[in-house]
Amino acid sequence: MNANEDDPVVGEIDVFFRTPDQNNELHLMQYPLRHALSAIGSERKIHDVQLRPRHARIQMRLALYPESDDFTHTKSFNQNPILEKKIGQEQTLTSQAHLQPPQSNYTIGCFVPDTPSGPAFTIVPIRAVQQLRPTFSHIDDHDRQQLIARAERKGLLPSGTVEAPSAASPLTLSFRRRETERAAERRRNSYATLKQRERSDAWIPIQFAHRHRDDVLAKKQALFSAFDHIDVKDTLFERGTSYRDLFETHTRHMRAGFVAKAGGVRKEPLSAQQLHVLGTDAAVVQAMEQARIVRFAELHRLIGLHRPEDEVLSALRKAAYCVRGLWVVKKCGKDVGRKNASERYDACRMLLLDVFRRSNAVRTSDAIHTLGEPLLVSFASVLSILQEVGERQKGVGWQLRLVCDDKFVKEHEELCRTVDEDWERWVENARECLRKAVRRRR
Questions:
Q1: Rounded to 5 degrees, what are φ and ψ at 61?
Q2: Residues 406, 343 contacting (CB under 8 angstroms)
Q3: Strands 204-206 and 265-266, bridge-based pairing
Q4: Peptide bond into 374 cis (omega under 30)
Q5: 249-300, pLDDT tens digit by residue?
Q6: Were 88 and a residue from 46, 71, 263, 403 both cysteine, which residue would form a disulfide, CB within 3.0 to 4.6 Å?
Q7: What is the mean pLDDT of the chain?
Q8: What is the CA radius of gyration of the chain?
Q9: Which helix (DSSP H) or strand (DSSP E) does residue 183 occupy?
Q10: Taking a C-beta distance cutoff of 8 angstroms, is the pair 348, 385 a contact?
């Protein structure tokens, strides 16, 4: 077989991308530490589980031995009985506190070889990974009590009796200097303030269920079931969707710098079921904000094939530009702050999209030359625009990240033309915006 030929196809497996329900989140709990005498895979009894909702922190109390009543081998030292009991019988595990909702790029895959339609591989994304680590707060409390008792015996601290206050006590006055903005910012971000906020988030007991329970098994089976057992409205793509198309839209939003923001917080992409409920215009806007660049057929499958093609195309022309048969969102995804800076960024983005529209490959130096002198945006902004829609190929330059759909280009030649009156008007407006910015600087 020649090196240029494709690898032979020895088998085909259907790959499905499945998301949990809207009211559920899938977290991966990692607590790898175990006692040497506890076998791998053995069940550890969970005493209770608590949650700090604002900090997304989880605390679990687990039994060290699942089936044994003899805990003497796990005692570290002979202190008071309460401490010995906690050390010998329990292990407290807590996750790290998060100021922002935790994110994860992990997925769980389930391969079912004997479905009615053949082998199937289901992929489910994980919302976050919670790494649980052991805590020794009970030992710290015990040491603190020992220090207090030792200080009382030496007379450094008053014992249980409290002296009566004197009849008259001197009155002292103190004046505080007004806190500066920098000092207030340091105080708000200090470790003591962050810990105080965390302590104010009270622990809330939550229910937990064993993995062998019927309702848990039913949820697991529904989540990782084959395509024949999944409702069509809950799936993201049709059965004939290729493996690459499956992930093109739903992994691109994880790239840094191209995530839609709402109040400084990441805006999660909507599921296919949520997109199907929205109107066509709103669904197209939501999908384009995450994808940034997309093929028409891929977008149509994502928001629902039940929508008329003309209606989707009309909504798409309002929200995106057509560049060589691909659709690029009109609204930039980068928060550039001030109004003038935002206008300059949008104008430079329009000129670089025009270069992509006319050429198959764009070098970074050519992109900077296109924007003219002086360069009104930073070099990082130029790279951000190029990375939004393109990929850098060694020895070639920047090329569009997706390959255009030849079928769409043939059916809509008027949209995919290199020269277009509306497009030329938009490009000229962008050049005029940059010329005004240069005059303002001078």
A1: -110, 115
A2: no
A3: unpaired
A4: yes
A5: 333 333 333 333 333 333 556 666 677 777 888 888 888 887 788 888 888 8
A6: 71
A7: 72
A8: 31
A9: helix 181-188
A10: yes
